[in-house]
Amino acid sequence: MKHSNILGSATLHITHKNKQWIVAIDDIKDDINGDWFDQSHWLNQGRLLGANSGRGSAWVIKSEWGKWVLRHYLRGGLYAKLNKDHYLWSGLKNTRAYREFELLQQLQTWQLPAPAPVAAKIRKSGLMYQNDLIMAHIPHRQTLAQAIIAHETSEQDWQMTGQTIARFHEHGVFHADLNAHNILLSDKLVHVIDFDKGQIRKPQPGWCEKNLKRLKRSVDKVTPDEHSEGIEQQWQILMDAYHGH
């Protein structure tokens, strides 16, 4: 078995061969290979543990270093009907996986509750590319969306969510798709996931408020009609915690 804690490594290691780039934390650079980014590789070894919700296709896998999440980037909206997973190439550092990898590394440096990056793979074909990302799996009780649907959110859940979002905003972290499915609840900590298209910006009330409004729309959307009466009070707990952080 390999050592289980690889999350302290911040060095980024890049290999390039046949129009394929693999980006990895330094601790696994001698072990990683392209097969890691194919779910059938893990399935054949009995290490594919199941699907994970979120943007794109994601699978939980059991590596020799612990649980990881493997995500293949998929397009959304109208583009997905024409081209589900190819993106226009404009350089390695502009690819979705590379940018999210770098952002997640920065969030780890700031000790923000987000997934730790493990590796990324980018494959160029003509003017297009496909990409995948491997991250550490975050143990959690359920997503905020699941808790709302099951009517199982506590006052502490809402408080911790508000405080956590405030921490990200204080560091200028813009989340492109802040919604109730991308917030993971546990007893002592709230994590935020899916930082595809995320950015580091100068903290400003305008975009911070838009982030919160996006989350509120998501909360309203998943809230069952029979529980909608109390959601405003719960949302206010989140907002009070956000502003009082």
Automatic annotation (TrEMBL):
Q: How is it placed in the membrane, per its record?
A: Peripheral membrane protein
Q: What is its EC number?
A: 2.7.1.166
| Compartments reported by the entry | Cell inner membrane
SUPFAM superfamilies (UniProt xref): Protein kinase-like (PK-like)
Instruction: Give a single Pfam family match.
Output: Kdo
Q: Which enzyme type, at the first EC level? A: transferase
Matching entries from InterPro entries are given as:
KDO_kinase, Kinase-like_dom_sf
Query: Chief localization class?
Result: membrane
Q: Which keywords does UniProt give here?
A: ATP-binding, Cell inner membrane, Cell membrane, Kinase, Lipopolysaccharide biosynthesis, Membrane, Nucleotide-binding, Transferase
Tell me what reaction this enzyme catalyses.
an alpha-Kdo-(2->6)-lipid IVA + ATP = a 4-O-phospho-alpha-Kdo-(2->6)-lipid IVA + ADP + H(+)
Q: Which pathway, metabolic or otherwise, does it act in?
A: Bacterial outer membrane biogenesis; LPS core biosynthesis
The family annotation for this protein states:
Belongs to the protein kinase superfamily. KdkA/RfaP family.
The function of this protein is:
Catalyzes the ATP-dependent phosphorylation of the 3-deoxy-D-manno-octulosonic acid (Kdo) residue in Kdo-lipid IV(A) at the 4-OH position.
Q: What is this protein called?
A: 3-deoxy-D-manno-octulosonic acid kinase
Q: Could you tell me which species this protein originates from?
A: Marinicella sediminis
